[in-house]
Amino acid sequence: MTDTPLNTSASGTIAANGSATVNIGPQLPREQWDVATTTVTALGMTVTVSQFGNIVDSTMQDPRPTATDNTPFQLKGANQLVVKWSNGTPGQAVTVTVTGTRRFGGG
Fold first, then answer.
1. CA distance 45 to 67
2. Given 40, 48, 65, 82, which residue has the most CB atoms within 10 angstroms?
3. Could you tell me the residue ranges of all domains in the chain?
């Protein structure tokens, strides 16, 4: 198995209804992400982070420009982290960034 540093982001834009959804996760077969830190732009919005349809963190509601969660988790294969923003300003850019270790060649 080959390990490399993971530091990747995905972005979206708040829609007219005040919401946005961004998915982030492995893109290649036999790729695994060992996520150490998840950071989202919050700007006073409600942010819900879910994995496998289960909420991982619904506490990332913060008036500061960003909110960070240091709860580690894994994403494998087609598994994606889903980040949903609500109560935002239409047209506002939002971003999720994950850091940790990217592994290739796992079973």
1. 10
2. 40
3. 2-104
pTM: 0.81
Helix (H) or strand (E) holding 23: strand 20-24
Give the chain's length. 107
Q: Which residues contact 26 (CB under 8 A, 6 or more apart)?
A: 32, 33, 75, 76, 77, 78, 79, 102
At CB < 8 A and 24+ separation, what contacts does 56-64 make? Answer: 56/81
What CATH number does the domain located at 2-104 have? Answer: 2.60.120.730
Question: What angle (nearest 5°) sits at the alpha carbon of residue 33, between those of residues 27 and 37?
Answer: 120
pLDDT of residue 70 exceeding 90, the answer is no
